[in-house]
Structure prediction request, 318 residues.
Amino acid sequence: MEIIDSKVDIEETQLINLFNDNTSYLTELENRFDVGVFIRGNTLILKGGLKELSVVEKIIRECEYMFRRNAALSKEDFLTVVNLFNTQSYSGKSTKKIVNSIIYNGHKTTSVRARNPKQEDYFQKVKENDLVFSIGPAGTGKTYLAVAMALAALRNDEVNRIIVTRPAVEAGESLGFLPGDLKDKIEPYLRPIQDAMFSMLQPETLKTLYDRQLIEITPLAYMRGRTLDDAFIILDEAQNATITQMKMFLTRLGNNSKAIVTGDVTQIDLKENQQSGLIHAVNILKKIKGIGFVFFDKKDVVRHKLVAKIIEAYDKKK
Prediction:
């Protein structure tokens, strides 16, 4: 490989200062792409192969755009950009294409955006299909991104409401003995989705959406008989839905509605004589046009770096 030099002039002096103060940013680029990166005034000097330098320059330009927009560049945002470009399928994409991959701008400074190619594929599949199955281990962003896409659709008036449901297997779908109203009874089983919403919305905004019934949470068993028009519907933990429940849910889809079904087929809590409706649905629906499928694995985990290693360790013991 021929080694060449390239120069990238940075207009934002504060961004150069950030790179100077946090050398891990540049070290990450050097390790990921086998290049050398040196700071000379307001210029980054790059040394490496032509293809690698082209990718690194795109990353730097994207970081410059994000810094100019947010007056900051967190390590998380930096790694998001690096991960998006760190595959052959993304290395040729322009900065404009990556910028357009923002999924939701919440009340926090950091936007919700795809953090790796598989999440980008997830986002595109939901845009292109009215029903998407998102399957994979914990920590891959299945539920979090589903919530972000639902909130974006509601904000953009693409739908009139968000409906979130989940099989309450731990309660045997018999919730009458639990205290409180229906929302209080099912709330513990939908906590992951509520946590995601709290991270994207101000508490008072979220309360207003609940009060106006623009966001509805309900047990899967209570979905029977409904037709859901103009809605963005999320079925979470779908591996714990029976075949009958899955068919019932999928046939609730009404006009101008979208649905995301998330699940982890390694975490099935059904009784031994019950087959997972998620596995069954994937097998019989995989050839139907208009239904998208995204399959995550441990390489796509975006939580703490130990999570992927923990998943791998447990997989080896099976």
The radius of gyration is 22 Å.
